[in-house]
């Protein structure tokens, strides 16, 4: 989940899995051996159409980019339906297998807009287990529109600060408030169009899935080995839909349900985050230093009062910015991705109750990838570009009203800060994506991992996706937090690793406590 939107397009689909913990470090790899000499296999071009052969037949030139990694750039068509219309570049990083390589394992950390390049290069042993590092060339890539690849760009740092953190002048929910937010969204969309070099209509998950098949081929693999987290499950399922015969070992962790209407996506997420917030509160009330007392219901009511107070009287932070209720909600949501971050959330809410917004804004900055006044990635911009093209708008007023009623009743703490005008209403291009079940007939087994307490991609979505897929296999992790693999549960890790390494398919319905 990233930027929350109005009920007409409640398609706020999951932040990158790296947001799962605030203790994630990029300095984890001193003990990994030095990079092997770069190895390049010939590209796989069997059955490729003549107009795509120049892309599929390119030979990669790897260069060292750190003590244990090598990097390259892959050229892809801007428009897969018209390959002569121009090119884009895809940035790729690889950690070669420490043992005998089964093949390449492509990784996507989510978003849409998360950098797979950074995820692998900065956090290899968070992205995958030691067994996968031993057996695969682990490959991270920035999808089109993201990071080091040909990227979406919208606003400079100062303008992004204003867009994400400025507090509306009008009263929440008023016509003037809605008009103010609409004007901001319009200016944002205009900035994206002006600064992105004409790529916006081609920033779609379908195009990114086709890019992924290109990566498979130029890496020299006949079949795809893939581990996708969060939004990466939608990318992986889309790949399986387009290329089922090559989708032989796919793992989709923290699944998105491609079948539910756009309007239901954000509704389900709102309920998921409210549930996660209640789980946090129950834990907090049993922990020394918790600023809340009483029952969970009473504590949630007190948190709602804090949010309302902050809405009326923003909190200082010490860096010149103020924390309004929307920024506070962003910080809360950032910490709900993992129980490992609940302690930081307690500190943030304790400070807020004392009139200090500095830790809350730290959490919001973490969520928005902001460090020392600079946005270190374009994840927010790419997120908007993908969602505005992938998700068809819902124009059914009755459905909108029903969705908001469900949110207000089921997520009363979150609901006031989940509403707002459609962030994609003034996007310069109409959406091309559709919603529908993905069966991927003809694929190999596809393992879907669902976490029972996942706030961003609720467990019911994993159940639904595994059921839709013709060869779907569901693995359930009983726990809290976003995604389940490589979080310390040997049952989940063994199921995923054995499947990816040697094709051992876990029992469908396996439950890992």
From TrEMBL:
The keyword Signal applies. Residues 1-30 form the signal peptide. Residues 419-512 form the Peptidase S33 tripeptidyl aminopeptidase-like C-terminal domain. It holds the Pfam family Abhydrolase_1. It comes from the Bacteria. Keywords: Hydrolase, Signal. PANTHER family: 2-SUCCINYL-6-HYDROXY-2,4-CYCLOHEXADIENE-1-CARBOXYLATE SYNTHASE (PTHR43248), TRIPEPTIDYL AMINOPEPTIDASE (PTHR43248:SF29). Belongs to the peptidase S33 family. This is Alpha/beta hydrolase. It comes from Microbacterium istanbulense.
């Amino acid at each position: 989940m990233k930027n929350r939107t109005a009920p007409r397009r409640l398609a706020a689909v999951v932040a990158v899995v790296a947001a799962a913990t605030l203790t994630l470090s990029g300095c984890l790899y001193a003990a990994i051996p030095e990079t092997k000499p770069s190895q390049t296999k010939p590209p796989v071009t069997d059955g490729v159409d003549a107009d795509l052969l120049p892309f599929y037949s390119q030979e990669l030139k790897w260069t060292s980019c750190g003590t244990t990694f090598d990097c390259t750039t892959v050229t892809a068509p801007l428009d897969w339906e018209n390959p002569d219309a121009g090119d884009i570049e895809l940035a790729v990083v690889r950690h070669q297998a420490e043992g005998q390589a089964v093949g390449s394992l492509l990784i996507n950390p989510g978003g849409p807009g998360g950098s797979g390049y950074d995820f692998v290069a900065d956090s290899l042993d968070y992205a995958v287990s030691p067994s996968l590092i031993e057996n695969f060339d682990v490959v991270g890539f920035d999808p089109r529109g993201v990071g080091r690849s040909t990227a979406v760009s919208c606003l400079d740092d100062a303008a992004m600060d204003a867009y994400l953190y400025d507090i509306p002048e009008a009263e929440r929910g008023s016509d003037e408030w809605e008009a103010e937010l609409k004007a901001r969204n319009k200016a944002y969309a205009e900035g994206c169009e002006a600064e992105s070099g004409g790529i916006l209509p081609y920033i779609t998950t379908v195009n990114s899935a086709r890019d992924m098949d290109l990566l498979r081929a130029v890496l020299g693999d006949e079949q795809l080995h893939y581990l996708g987290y969060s939004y990466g499950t939608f990318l992986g399922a889309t790949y399986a839909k387009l290329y089922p015969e090559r989708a032989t070992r796919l793992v989709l962790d923290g699944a998105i349900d491609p079948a539910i209407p756009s309007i239901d996506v954000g509704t389900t997420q709102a309920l998921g985050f409210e549930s996660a917030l209640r789980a946090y509160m129950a834990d907090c009330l049993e922990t020394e230093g918790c600023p809340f007392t009483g029952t969970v219901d009473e504590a949630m009511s007190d948190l709602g009062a804090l949010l309302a107070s902050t809405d009326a009287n923003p909190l200082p932070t010490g860096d010149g910015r103020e924390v309004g209720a929307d920024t506070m909600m962003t910080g809360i949501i950032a910490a709900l991705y993992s129980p490992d971050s609940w302690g930081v959330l307690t500190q943030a809410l304790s400070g807020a109750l004392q009139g200090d917004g500095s830790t809350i804004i730290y959490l919001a900055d973490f969520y928005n990838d902001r460090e020392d006044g600079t946005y270190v990635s374009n994840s927010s911009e790419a997120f908007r570009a993908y969602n505005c093209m992938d998700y068809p708008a819902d124009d059914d007023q009755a459905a909108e009203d029903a969705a908001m009623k469900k949110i207000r009743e089921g997520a009363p703490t979150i609901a006031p800060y989940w509403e707002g005008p459609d962030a994609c209403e003034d996007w310069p291009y109409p959406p091309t994506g559709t919603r529908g079940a993905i069966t991927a007939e003809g694929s190999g087994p596809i393992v879907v991992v669902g976490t029972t307490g996942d706030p961003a991609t609720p467990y019911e979505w994993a159940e639904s996706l595994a059921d839709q897929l013709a060869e779907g296999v569901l693995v359930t992790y009983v726990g809290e937090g976003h995604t389940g693999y490589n979080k310390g549960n040997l049952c989940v890790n063994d199921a995923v690793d054995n499947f990816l390494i040697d094709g051992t398919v876990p029992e469908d319905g396996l439950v890992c406590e």
